[in-house]
Design a protein that fits this description.
Structural class: alpha/beta
Distance between the termini: 42 Å
CATH architecture of the largest domain: 3-Layer(aba) Sandwich
Number of strands: 14
Number of helices: 15
CATH topology of the largest domain: Aminopeptidase
Helix content: 25-40%
CATH superfamily of the largest domain: Zn peptidases
Largest sheet: 14 strands, mixed
Order of helices and strands: HHHEEEEHHEHEHEHEEHEHEEHEHEHHH
Shape: globular
Number of domains: 2
Length: about 475
Amino acid sequence: MVDDDRRAIERAILGDIWTTDEPYQVLRELCDDIGHRYGGSESEKQGAEFLKKKMEEYGLQNVRLEEFSMAGWDRGSAELTLIEPVERSFSCVSLPYCPAADLTAELLDVGDGELADFERLADQVRGKIVISAAETNRPGERGSHRTDKYGWAVERGAAGYIYVNQNPGMLRITGSITGRNPSGDSAADREAPIPAVGVSLEAGSMILRLIERSDGKGKVHLKLENRTFESTSQNVIGEIVGSEFPDEVVLIGGHYDGHDISQAAGDDGAGTVTGLEAGRVLAPHAGKIKRTIRVICFGSEEVGLLGAAHHAKVTDPDTYRFVLNLDGAGRGQGGQEQITLSGWPALRSWFEKFSKDSAYPFTIQDQLNSHSDHFPFALRGIPNGTLNSRDSTAGMIGRGWGHTEADTFDKIHLRGLQMSAALVARVALAVANAEDWPVERMSEDETRALLERNNLLARSERSGRFPPQQA
C-alpha cells in the first residue's frame, strides 16, 4: 500500500511533467546549439556548463562539476581503398582512439566477429585486416560487444579492423576501441594498438560481394590521420538532500557525452534530460524525501565509462542505496520502458510490487552487462539497474541509429521523454523513502562470484577494474 505522502508527491510531479515541454527544449539546445559533446572536447565542456546552469535553475542543491583527467582524441581524415580484386574507394570513419595509419594488408572476412569465428579462422588472422558485423543483436538479445571483437582480433595478430553497420541507410558506425594498456588512463595507454574503422551496411556488403567473387581474397589500404592527447572531462552533479538520512544516496543519471559524428540525441542525450527532468520535479519536495537523490550527468561514457568510473572511485560505496543508470531512457513514443537489474534477484520482486502499486506496468529483468555507466558501481557491489526505452529502434540491429550520423534530435519525442521522466522520478522517490528495501551492498567475494557467473571476472581483472581501488 502506498502511503498518502508519497501519493501526493506523485500527483504533483506527474502533473508537472505532463504540463511542460522542458526536457524537449533542453535536449534541443544540447543537440542543435551545443552539438556532439564528444568526451574531452570543447563541446562536452559547453554541455557540462549548460547542464550545471539547468540544475541550479531547477533548485537542486550542491550543484557542481566533478573534473577528471582523461585521454582526448581528435579525428582526422580517413581513406579506405579496396585494391584487389578491383580498385574501389569507400567512405569510412576512424573509431575513437584509433591511431594514425598508412597500412596495406590482405582482407579477411570473419563473419559476425564472434569468438567462434575468430577461433575457426585463428591461423589466418595474423597480419590481416579483418572485417565483420559491428553488432548483430536485435532488441532484447545479447551479442558480443565491439571491444570484445577487437580484443580477439588483436590477440590473434590482426593488422586492422573494419566494422560493418548492420542497419541500412548509408550510415557509417563508430564506437571507441580498447587502448594498448586497458588499465591506464594516459593518452599513450588509451591509443589503440591497431587501426579500426566503421563503414555503412551498403559499403560493407559491396566489399564482401567483391571479395567473394575472388574466393574470399582481397587487399585493402587504410590511410588514417588521428591524434590521441591528454585532456579533461567532467561529471555534472546536483542533489536533493535527504530530510532524514542525507548520507544515504539514490543516484540517477545518464551520460551527456556523445560521438563526434552525431548529435547523440538518443545515446544518450534523451537519458540525460530524463534524469534532469526527474530532478527538476522532485526538488520542490525535498523536505519529504528521506534519502538524498543525486542527479548525475556522466561525462565521457562513450570512451570507456570514464565519468561513472571516476565518480564511483572517489565516493564512498557504502553511502549508496541504489544506482539507476538512464542510458537509453526517453527514446521512442513512451510506454515501452524496462528496468534491467544487475544481479540482485530480491530487487526483482521489489520492483514488481512497485510496478503494481504504481499502476504502470513495465518490463523487469535481471542481467549483468559491462558496457554502460552502471558497471563501475556494480564492481563495487552497489545495487544497480538500468532504465531504458525499448520502442525507439524496433526491428533494427544493435543500437539502431546510435553511434551513427542519424542519432539526431528529430528521432526523439516529447511523450517518450515525459513517460521515462515520470517513471524515473517515481522510482527515485520510492527507493529514497522505502522502509522495505530488500538488499545491501555485496562484499568483494560476492561481487567476484557475480562477475564470474556472468563471464566478466577475467576481463575486469585484466583491465584493472576489479578489485576496485578507492581514491
